[in-house]
Protein backbone atom coordinates (compact mmCIF):
# COMPACT_ATOMS: atom_id res chain seq x y z
CA UNK A 1 0.00 0.00 0.00
CA UNK A 2 1.09 3.53 -0.55
CA UNK A 3 2.13 5.60 2.39
CA UNK A 4 2.04 9.38 1.81
CA UNK A 5 5.65 10.50 1.60
CA UNK A 6 6.90 7.04 2.53
CA UNK A 7 8.18 3.83 1.04
CA UNK A 8 5.20 1.91 -0.42
CA UNK A 9 6.80 -1.51 0.03
CA UNK A 10 5.68 -3.67 2.95
CA UNK A 11 8.14 -3.98 5.82
CA UNK A 12 8.63 -6.46 8.59
CA UNK A 13 5.95 -6.12 11.30
CA UNK A 14 3.54 -4.22 9.01
CA UNK A 15 -0.03 -5.30 9.61
CA UNK A 16 -2.12 -5.99 6.53
CA UNK A 17 -5.53 -4.43 7.04
CA UNK A 18 -6.88 -5.17 3.58
CA UNK A 19 -6.31 -5.69 -0.12
CA UNK A 20 -8.72 -3.87 -2.37
CA UNK A 21 -9.07 -6.84 -4.74
CA UNK A 22 -10.35 -9.23 -2.06
CA UNK A 23 -14.01 -9.55 -1.18
CA UNK A 24 -13.58 -10.77 2.38
CA UNK A 25 -11.00 -10.29 5.07
CA UNK A 26 -8.44 -13.08 5.05
CA UNK A 27 -5.00 -13.82 6.39
CA UNK A 28 -2.38 -12.92 3.83
CA UNK A 29 1.33 -13.60 4.15
CA UNK A 30 3.99 -10.95 3.57
CA UNK A 31 5.17 -12.92 0.52
CA UNK A 32 1.65 -12.84 -0.97
CA UNK A 33 1.36 -9.12 -0.27
CA UNK A 34 4.75 -8.44 -1.85
CA UNK A 35 3.87 -10.54 -4.92
CA UNK A 36 0.48 -8.81 -5.34
CA UNK A 37 2.08 -5.38 -4.98
CA UNK A 38 4.84 -6.25 -7.49
CA UNK A 39 2.26 -7.38 -10.07
CA UNK A 40 0.12 -4.32 -9.49
CA UNK A 41 -2.82 -6.50 -8.45
CA UNK A 42 -4.66 -3.96 -6.37
CA UNK A 43 -3.59 -1.87 -3.46
CA UNK A 44 -2.43 -3.46 -0.27
CA UNK A 45 -3.54 -1.55 2.78
CA UNK A 46 -1.05 -1.83 5.63
CA UNK A 47 -0.65 -0.24 9.02
CA UNK A 48 2.96 0.42 9.95
CA UNK A 49 4.03 -1.28 13.15
CA UNK A 50 7.76 -0.60 13.48
CA UNK A 51 7.95 -1.99 17.03
CA UNK A 52 6.41 -5.36 16.20
CA UNK A 53 3.01 -6.89 16.58
CA UNK A 54 0.78 -5.19 19.13
CA UNK A 55 0.37 -7.01 22.42
CA UNK A 56 -3.27 -8.04 22.58
CA UNK A 57 -3.15 -9.33 26.16
CA UNK A 58 -5.32 -7.24 28.51
CA UNK A 59 -3.24 -4.86 30.63
CA UNK A 60 -4.18 -6.60 33.88
CA UNK A 61 -2.83 -9.89 32.50
CA UNK A 62 0.60 -8.61 31.38
CA UNK A 63 3.47 -9.82 33.53
CA UNK A 64 5.74 -6.82 33.09
CA UNK A 65 2.96 -4.42 34.08
CA UNK A 66 2.31 -6.47 37.20
CA UNK A 67 6.03 -6.39 38.04
CA UNK A 68 6.04 -2.59 37.71
CA UNK A 69 3.05 -2.39 40.04
CA UNK A 70 4.69 -4.80 42.48
CA UNK A 71 7.83 -2.63 42.61
CA UNK A 72 5.56 0.31 43.43
CA UNK A 73 3.91 -1.77 46.17
CA UNK A 74 7.34 -2.42 47.69
CA UNK A 75 8.06 1.31 47.56
CA UNK A 76 4.76 2.01 49.36
CA UNK A 77 5.62 -0.61 51.99
CA UNK A 78 8.99 1.04 52.66
CA UNK A 79 7.73 4.56 53.36
CA UNK A 80 5.68 5.80 56.29
CA UNK A 81 1.95 5.15 55.83
CA UNK A 82 1.29 8.89 55.77
CA UNK A 83 3.58 9.25 52.74
CA UNK A 84 2.28 6.27 50.73
CA UNK A 85 0.00 8.26 48.44
CA UNK A 86 2.86 10.66 47.65
CA UNK A 87 5.21 8.03 46.19
CA UNK A 88 2.93 6.43 43.59
CA UNK A 89 0.98 7.87 40.69
CA UNK A 90 -1.64 6.52 38.32
CA UNK A 91 -4.43 7.94 36.21
CA UNK A 92 -6.54 4.94 37.29
CA UNK A 93 -8.05 4.94 40.77
CA UNK A 94 -8.37 1.14 40.61
CA UNK A 95 -4.65 0.70 39.83
CA UNK A 96 -3.67 3.20 42.52
CA UNK A 97 -5.81 1.35 45.08
CA UNK A 98 -4.26 -1.98 44.01
CA UNK A 99 -0.76 -0.57 44.57
CA UNK A 100 -1.60 1.08 47.90
CA UNK A 101 -3.40 -2.03 49.18
CA UNK A 102 -0.54 -4.29 48.09
CA UNK A 103 1.97 -2.00 49.78
CA UNK A 104 -0.07 -2.06 52.98
CA UNK A 105 -0.18 -5.88 52.87
CA UNK A 106 3.60 -6.04 52.46
CA UNK A 107 4.20 -3.52 55.27
CA UNK A 108 1.94 -5.42 57.70
CA UNK A 109 3.53 -8.75 56.77
CA UNK A 110 7.04 -7.36 57.32
CA UNK A 111 6.00 -5.93 60.69
CA UNK A 112 4.45 -9.24 61.74
CA UNK A 113 7.22 -11.79 61.11
CA UNK A 114 9.60 -13.14 58.54
CA UNK A 115 7.40 -16.20 57.96
CA UNK A 116 4.31 -14.03 57.35
CA UNK A 117 6.30 -11.87 54.93
CA UNK A 118 7.52 -15.02 53.17
CA UNK A 119 3.94 -16.31 52.73
CA UNK A 120 2.76 -12.89 51.53
CA UNK A 121 5.53 -12.74 48.95
CA UNK A 122 4.62 -16.26 47.81
CA UNK A 123 1.07 -15.00 47.20
CA UNK A 124 2.41 -12.17 45.05
CA UNK A 125 4.64 -14.61 43.14
CA UNK A 126 1.64 -16.87 42.53
CA UNK A 127 -0.19 -13.93 40.97
CA UNK A 128 2.88 -13.15 38.86
CA UNK A 129 3.04 -16.75 37.65
CA UNK A 130 -0.53 -16.41 36.36
CA UNK A 131 0.35 -13.42 34.17
CA UNK A 132 1.18 -13.42 30.46
CA UNK A 133 4.59 -12.49 29.10
CA UNK A 134 4.74 -11.63 25.39
CA UNK A 135 6.81 -13.62 22.93
CA UNK A 136 9.54 -10.98 22.98
CA UNK A 137 9.83 -11.02 26.75
CA UNK A 138 13.15 -12.10 28.16
CA UNK A 139 11.44 -14.91 30.04
CA UNK A 140 11.18 -16.70 26.70
CA UNK A 141 14.97 -16.56 26.39
CA UNK A 142 15.43 -18.30 29.73
CA UNK A 143 14.29 -21.64 31.08
CA UNK A 144 10.69 -22.19 32.18
CA UNK A 145 11.64 -22.11 35.87
CA UNK A 146 12.71 -18.47 35.61
CA UNK A 147 9.86 -17.11 37.73
CA UNK A 148 10.32 -19.81 40.35
CA UNK A 149 13.89 -18.60 40.88
CA UNK A 150 12.46 -15.49 42.57
CA UNK A 151 10.71 -17.52 45.24
CA UNK A 152 12.15 -16.88 48.70
CA UNK A 153 11.67 -20.60 49.48
CA UNK A 154 12.96 -21.98 46.21
CA UNK A 155 16.51 -22.83 45.19
CA UNK A 156 18.74 -20.02 43.97
CA UNK A 157 18.95 -19.43 40.25
CA UNK A 158 21.82 -20.91 38.25
CA UNK A 159 24.56 -19.13 36.35
CA UNK A 160 24.32 -15.46 35.52
CA UNK A 161 20.98 -15.10 37.28
CA UNK A 162 22.37 -15.66 40.78
CA UNK A 163 21.33 -12.84 43.07
Protein model, in words:
The protein has helices spanning 30-39, 63-78, 93-112, 114-129, and strands at residues 15-19, 44-47. Strands 1-2 form a two-stranded antiparallel sheet. It has 4 helices and 2 strands, in the order βαβααα. α2 crosses α3 (93-112) and α3 runs antiparallel to α4 (114-129). Residues 137-141 and 155-163 have low confidence and may be disordered. It has 2 domains: 1-54, no CATH class; 59-157, no CATH class. Helix content is 38%, strand content 6%. It is mainly α and 163 residues long.
What is the tally of helical segments?
Answer: 4
What structural category characterises the helix and strand content?
mainly alpha
The span between the termini is 50 Å
| Shape, per Cα inertia axes | elongated
Strand percentage, roughly? 5-15%
Neighbour order of strands in the largest sheet: 1-2
> What would you report as the Rg, rounded to the nearest angstrom?
23 Å
Uncertain runs are: 137-141, 155-163
N-to-C series of helices and strands: EHEHHH
Q: pLDDT average, as an integer?
A: 78
Largest sheet: 2 strands, antiparallel
What level of helicity do the residues show? Answer: 25-40%
